[in-house]
Specification:
Layout: E1 12-17, H1 19-29, H2 31-47, H3 52-69, H4 71-84, H5 88-95, H6 97-101, E2 118-122, E3 133-141, E4 148-155, E5 161-166, E6 173-176, E7 180-186, H7 200-208, H8 213-222, E8 229-235, E9 239-245, E10 250-253, E11 259-262, H9 269-274, H10 286-299, H11 306-313, E12 328-329, E13 335-345, E14 350-355, E15 364-367
């Protein structure tokens, strides 16, 4: 069902302890949603000519890389698999969907429509209550609204985390008790798929597992990446960075007039002079989505509130290819849309999530503590 009936609510899943224990708890509680994630990508892979059995075979190689780079992540994935009764390779495969669909690890590289996503950060100097606000519209397969959850994690080591994610994956957007928040946007350039790397959800989780902004930034700068990705990092005390990453370089952008906005094209002058932006060719709406959100926030500078951020993310100019994307049919009968709006007040430690915000929706509140 697409955008009809009562609004979908992403269930809150609490877990704590060592990585495998956390995985087991999530797997047992969110088993239905994890199985839904696996089914979505099993069909999605097939639509792109990628056999699921083959994907799981390649996932074994990817698991070896994850274990070398971050054994804690693989231990949690093992717990997820055991908890919901699937194989480890299936959990790794959905986390590595970018690598498997876009040509990493020897895959055919028959891509689907790219993610959209528009993100924005307002520093305390720009907001009404002097809180840092961080928001994102996540554009992807509409059906993923039915497999999304919010994880509230208390690891044995490291900060507490509140994470919005497709069930079975490590992270999409979230914040931690050290005051940091992260969102990610699709990017694509001519260097993608030229090397092997860690799945992007694993990199996002590594960032959220850090206690300081410096350590989080270093996780991005030092990460092994196979594909480009844009990462927006913020800290409640008034710092924010946008990191445009390619497989071999990282370009950074800082806020202008206390506001930082990014969609799905390379913005930094250094990146635009060095890499060929291949994603914008099929994502032309990225150019105006970025501008329209920025203008809305700048008009309200000093008075930006959670309502202001929600209004910016509801912009319908250029519909259906808008900041808030209405469902658009794609190959194989799939439908692409703004799956969710995720808004975080990192000062207060609160996240609000609205599923399928292009239609009737409600913002559900989740608290870090």
């Amino acid at each position: 069902m697409t955008g009809s009936g009562n609004p979908i609510v992403a269930p809150l899943i609490d877990a704590e302890g060592l990585p495998k224990d956390i995985g087991l708890q999530i797997g047992r509680t969110a088993g239905e949603q994890i199985l839904r994630s696996i089914e979505i990508y099993r069909r999605g892979f097939l639509e792109c000519g990628v056999d699921w059995k083959w994907a799981c075979t390649i996932a074994r190689r990817i698991a070896e890389r994850i274990e070398r780079c971050t054994p804690e992540a693989l231990a949690e994935m093992q717990g997820l698999a055991e908890g919901c009764g699937v194989s480890l390779e299936e959990i790794v495969a959905i986390n590595a969907r970018t690598e498997l669909l876009y040509g990493g690890f020897g895959s055919p590289g028959v891509a689907e429509d790219p993610d959209g996503c528009t993100g924005a950060i307002a520093l305390p100097a720009a907001t009404r209550d002097a809180h840092l606000l961080h928001v994102q519209n996540w554009d992807w397969r509409d059906e993923c609204a039915e497999s999304s959850v919010v994880l509230r994690l208390v690891p044995a080591n490291g900060p507490r985390m509140l994470i919005f994610v497709e069930a079975g994956m490590m992270a999409r957007a979230g914040m931690n008790s050290a005051g940091m928040a992260i969102t990610g946007n699709f990017l694509e350039c001519d260097r993608d798929g030229s090397r092997e790397g860690l799945p992007v959800p694993v990199i996002r989780r590594q960032i959220l597992s850090q206690n300081t902004l410096g350590a989080a930034l270093e996780k991005v700068l030092q990460s092994e990446r196979a594909f480009s990705i844009n990462l927006m990092l913020s800290h409640k005390d008034g710092e924010a960075f946008d990191l445009e990453t390619t497989p071999d370089e990282v370009f950074w952008i800082t806020p202008e007039n206390d506001i930082l906005v990014h969609a799905n094209h390379f913005v930094s002058a250094a990146a635009r002079s060095k890499v060929r932006d291949t994603g914008v060719i099929s994502n032309g709406d990225s150019l105006y989505r970025d501008l329209r959100v920025r203008r809305h926030l700048e008009r309200n500078h000093g008075h930006i509130s959670t309502l202001t951020m929600k209004e910016a993310m509801q912009d319908k100019f250029g519909s259906p290819r808008a900041v808030c994307r209405s469902p658009v049919s794609g190959p194989g009968g799939k439908s692409s849309s703004t799956v969710a709006t995720v808004l975080m007040d990192t000062t207060a430690g609160i996240m609000w999530v609205a599923m399928r915000p292009y239609g009737p929706h409600e913002f559900v509140e989740y608290r870090l503590s």
